[in-house]
Amino acid sequence: MSAAIPALVLGGSGYVAGELLRLLAGHPHFVVGGVMSESQPGELIGSAFPHLAHSYEQSRFQSKEQIIEGLGGQPRWALFCAAPHGAAAALVDELLTAADRAGSELRVVDISADYRFADPAAYEAVYAQPHAAPRRLREFTCAVPEHLERAATPHVAHPGCFATAMLLAAVPLLAAGASAPQLFVSGVTGSTGSGRKPIEGTHHPLRHADLYSYNALGHRHVAEVEAGVRAATGSEAQVAFVPHSGPFARGIHVTLQAALRRPLATRELNAMLREFYARCPFVRVSEEAPRVKNVVGSNYAHLAGVARGDSVAVMCAIDNLTKGAAGGAIQWMNRLFGLPETEGLTAPAPGWT
Fold first, then answer.
1. Catalytic positions
2. Measured between alpha carbons, how far is 166 from 115 in angstroms, rounded to an integer?
3. What is the pLDDT of residues 151-177, one digit of tens each?
4. DSSP-assigned beta bridge partners for residue 81
5. Which residues pair with 80 in a beta bridge?
6. At a CB cut-off of 8 Å and minimum separation 6, what does 144 contact?
7. What is the pLDDT of residue 198?
8. Distance CA 209, CA 340 (A)
9. pTM assigned to the model
């Protein structure tokens, strides 16, 4: 496939959108065809993201009306939605309807939470508001790319960043029947996971040189993880999750613990993880404990397991903005357009961030 595929980015001034734009700037097949920001229409993209100014020198944020007007100019589009949950559903629905009227094919990867649940009641239970486009839910599949080779729907919803890390650690254990379904997870995330708008949890003087939990046993990604396990393995899981805010900007580290159903040595456990992810180019299993610094800025996930007695622990490190959001979304979009899933995503982590 040689012709460039125009890409649209919604929620254009947020951190995830900025990461999408960074990755798309070097993609061999996707070219940015429009970036929508309802808060900054007409402003230079480089003013919101100075590190991207050289790649988008004259490019400006567009309004929704400008994005819709341009849909008829190309026969197909890739749409990445990084709009906030609650706003994304109606926006995606409107753009899909407009693309259909314009005679353009539009493929969507939603990075918000709005299309992660197949049942609108499940979405409402977690987010305490009705779904704005329930009839569209059947057009979306939610999964991390490593757990579903091909989506049966035209569009995909990418799981949340914490959910991505937890699913990468949990699914191999439960698929092999190696552990009990009760999973206990502790995770630490960087401040970019809270979004661009400054709040107490991301304010530097409060977060620097500190570590603290939040939403213990009540984080909204738990429902996604349990649904993701069910979809990937056909089995049920009960997840007890305690998230923490870390004193760094990017990255996620989770430690998942469970009781073993059968004796398992650490060597066997890691061999099982390697076999499960043998065909997954972005997952690396090692005997060494994963470190956030080794994955930040990349689409790679590092895993390591330890088994002792009747207990098992699996650690996973990812970049919340890349593998947990923008990079995973591009990985899915590559597949939706019949491209190798690694296109534009193989750059290693910088290492010294």
1. 161
2. 19
3. 999 999 999 999 999 999 999 999 999
4. 10, 110
5. 9, 109
6. 158, 159, 164, 167, 168, 228, 328
7. 66
8. 41
9. 0.96
